[in-house]
Amino acid sequence: MRRILAVVAAAGIACGTASVAHADPAVGFGYTSEAGAYPFEGSASWTADQVDVWEYGDAVKVNAESADGWDWARLELSAPAGQQLHEGTYANAAVRQQNSPQLATPGFIAFRGTKAGGAGACAAPDATADFTVSRLVRAANGTVTDLDVTFVLHCSAAATSGEAHFHR
């Protein structure tokens, strides 16, 4: 009986991780980079009240900014051309330039900056990203009200892993 309860508890913990993230995310936006990664370096996180999400054109944009505006990061996520971003996994997304047209493959844009050091964006021609949208809810007017996304960016040989949670 104890073994059955242990298996049920372990399954609940394994399956419940995503549910806990939806209800009470640990961070609004956070990342950790391997040495040499760009444009993200080291690690950082912002609280849920420092994150905003909106949809413009074909991209869902995630903006994180410290209360004083000193430190910030942005992601832009898009589905392949002709599709709207939805829940699911997007593998080998092309890392594209800001305001570039939607591609036949999923798109991913990443910016990172500080007032002291300016801003950087991943623009390597062979850069890719994998991201999973585990929750994306839009209001009747199309406004994004809930978003949970994890990502791995390969702008160079080094990788950056992160997540964003937004719940209005």
Automatic annotation (TrEMBL):
Going by the UniProt record, its keywords in alphabetical order are: Signal
Point out the signal peptide segment: 1-23
Q: What is this protein called?
A: Secreted protein
